[in-house]
Amino acid sequence: MEVLLPKLPSPSYCRSITTRTTSRVRAGFRRLSYLHVRASTVNQEVAEPTLSSPSLGHTTRPHFPILHQEVNGSKLVYIDNAATSQKPAAVVKALQDYYEGYNSNVHRGIHYLSAKATDEYESARRKVAAFINASDSREIVFTRNATEAINLVAYSWGLSNLKQGDEIVLTVAEHHSAIVPWQLVAQKVGAVLKFVNLNQDEIPDIDKLKEVLSKKTKIVAVHHVSNVLASVLPIRDIAHWAHGVGAKVLVDACQSVPHMVVDVQNLDADFLVASSHKMCGPTGIGFLYGKMDLLSSMPPFLGGGEMISDVYLDHSTYAEPPSRFEAGTPAIGEAIGLGAAIDYLSGIGMQAIHEYEVELGTYLYERLLSVPNIRIYGPAPSKEVKRASLCSFNVDNLHPTDLATFLDQQHGVAIRSGHHCAQPLHRYLGVNASARASLYFYNTKEDVDNFIHALHDTVSFFNSFK
Ligand SMILES: Cc1ncc(COP(=O)(O)O)c(C=O)c1O
């Protein structure tokens, strides 16, 4: 396949999506929504799965009750998975079993319910450890989400290891939750944030990253898979280079752990974070992986019950990790739900999920190129470049939020629009916002086809006002 690399947008193009699509067009859209008129026959062309060759998407869809509904009069096409994934019935059942059958606090009671809740909670920790190949389940700290896990490292490790003039290396493509905690800590200690730009293929420039590393570098905090560009960073190489100058590596694996085999020992990551809700698990739970010697050397992040060894009136001693970092009653049912999500994903196999998604993601990319005046961000897929199964894009002279609203209201297609918590990256790309379609293993080519039909219809609708 020959794919032309999209050009950077012209200044006029950038202006065109800094404000929403003109009010005349929006007024027409409102009228259309009100009357609930179909802009075309797209919805009558909705593709159905071919029963002869069931894909992973076709075989797993039945496990997700939420996908089988109509939204705004159309069959739901949920392709906002980079924001959050849907939950299989097995995960919902695990939550229900906990609340109906053995709801109790963990690590505190000696009664049956508490012992059972504690067993299941700790079993979930072991499942997370095995899933990412941590050598010891004590290397897994449950947090509220990936954001809290990054804050934990920034405040606990950062405040005790960073000093004036030390450097923290990031890329311009990091999620806000991987930038702001380091800004806050750097401001406190006088450390410096160094940002690596993109190369000409719109991938964070790892040659520049290698160049920027020095004895001043204390931590490299980078994503594994970009939630906007769909690019994948070579973490093992980055860790090797960082360790060569004595720096630590924190991997934001929010968009990789749900979609591929992630092996922390193979990557040689010092810290790695992810959120349960993006990997078929409940919201309100995420985790931090940290090498045991690092976690053991770190002071507490939050104080309270569970994280102490002994408390006196004037001081306290602290528990060993992971308890040291889990102050207060944790999200017990949610951790157990995450364990169920891991069982579910492992039952399918992460390699099978990854291979299916690479194929589906390439299909999405290729089909999107059929839309006139589209600009897809990130590298073009090729034999060498495997994109994640998401595409962020803009269509000339259309605001992505108008596009996403029309897709939802007229076609039942759920995509994301905005800056995807990556404002610096959007600024670098010369735009305020983009639309993003992101797939998961339960999506099918029919979902992609239906989205593309709907997108063509959306673009024609808005263009008809010009
Ligand atoms: C790459 C990346 N990092 C971090 C986050 C933050 O995840 P959470 O909001 O679950 O903490 C996200 C979520 O969108 C993400 O995509």
UniProtKB/TrEMBL annotation:
<feature type="domain" description="Aminotransferase class V">
    <location>
        <begin position="77"/>
        <end position="451"/>
    </location>
</feature>
<dbReference type="InterPro" id="IPR015422">
    <property type="entry name" value="PyrdxlP-dep_Trfase_small"/>
</dbReference>
<dbReference type="GO" id="GO:0031071">
    <property type="term" value="F:cysteine desulfurase activity"/>
</dbReference>
<dbReference type="GO" id="GO:0006534">
    <property type="term" value="P:cysteine metabolic process"/>
</dbReference>
<protein>
    <recommendedName>
        <fullName>cysteine desulfurase</fullName>
        <ecNumber>2.8.1.7</ecNumber>
    </recommendedName>
</protein>
<keyword id="KW-0456">Lyase</keyword>
<dbReference type="InterPro" id="IPR000192">
    <property type="entry name" value="Aminotrans_V_dom"/>
</dbReference>
<dbReference type="GO" id="GO:0009507">
    <property type="term" value="C:chloroplast"/>
</dbReference>
<keyword id="KW-0663">Pyridoxal phosphate</keyword>
<dbReference type="GO" id="GO:0009000">
    <property type="term" value="F:selenocysteine lyase activity"/>
</dbReference>
<dbReference type="GO" id="GO:0010269">
    <property type="term" value="P:response to selenium ion"/>
</dbReference>
<dbReference type="Pfam" id="PF00266">
    <property type="entry name" value="Aminotran_5"/>
</dbReference>
<dbReference type="InterPro" id="IPR015421">
    <property type="entry name" value="PyrdxlP-dep_Trfase_major"/>
</dbReference>
<dbReference type="GO" id="GO:0030170">
    <property type="term" value="F:pyridoxal phosphate binding"/>
</dbReference>
<dbReference type="GO" id="GO:0001887">
    <property type="term" value="P:selenium compound metabolic process"/>
</dbReference>
<dbReference type="InterPro" id="IPR015424">
    <property type="entry name" value="PyrdxlP-dep_Trfase"/>
</dbReference>
<keyword id="KW-0808">Transferase</keyword>
<dbReference type="InterPro" id="IPR010970">
    <property type="entry name" value="Cys_dSase_SufS"/>
</dbReference>
